[in-house]
Amino acid sequence: IFGSISAGINALFGPLHGGANEAVLNMLDQIKDEGLSPEEFMDKVKDKESGIRLMGFGHRVYKNYDPRARIVKSTAEKILNKLGAGDERLEIAMRLEEKALNDDYFVERKLYPNVDFYTGLIYSAMGFPPRMFTPLFAIGRLPGWIAQYREMIEDKATRIGRPRQVYVGQDLRRYPGV
Q1: Residue 120 sits in a domain of what CATH number?
Q2: What global pTM score does this model have?
Q3: Which of 33, 116, 155, 171 is the catalytic position?
Q4: Of 17, 33, 47, 59, catalytic
Q5: Residues in CB range of 96: below 8 A, 6 or more apart
């Protein structure tokens, strides 16, 4: 079972899935550090030549506002208010969301906040370092991974779980020292 869990965690690697909430925080920090208004930043996002991406918006399944994002946004507001921490990043995030929801450019492209847009703010407010965001994201998926593994093991017709993909990468690689 540890191999199944490890594979699941490793599948979350990268800025567009498990690392998306960290990418959102980096984006919010960039806006703050460069002294941009959310409106100025959104104008840069709309300019394809700028190379600026709007992180934490859009979803493959939810083509309207991600219902999980509403819950997470509310939770972020509650946690930050309870901690008495007026987080400038939360204010920037809320202004970005407001701008996107009222701008035809984003509405026509169905770019609404997703669950990752506010989760990094919550994790950060709770004191977790960004390197722990993906493991925290994975914890919520553990019951599903374990259930899927157990279903496969308990099915008498399944003698071996075979992958549906074939690895086509480099054969031999040097192991990097730790």
Answers
A1: 1.10.230.10
A2: 0.76
A3: 116
A4: 59
A5: 31, 38, 41, 42, 54
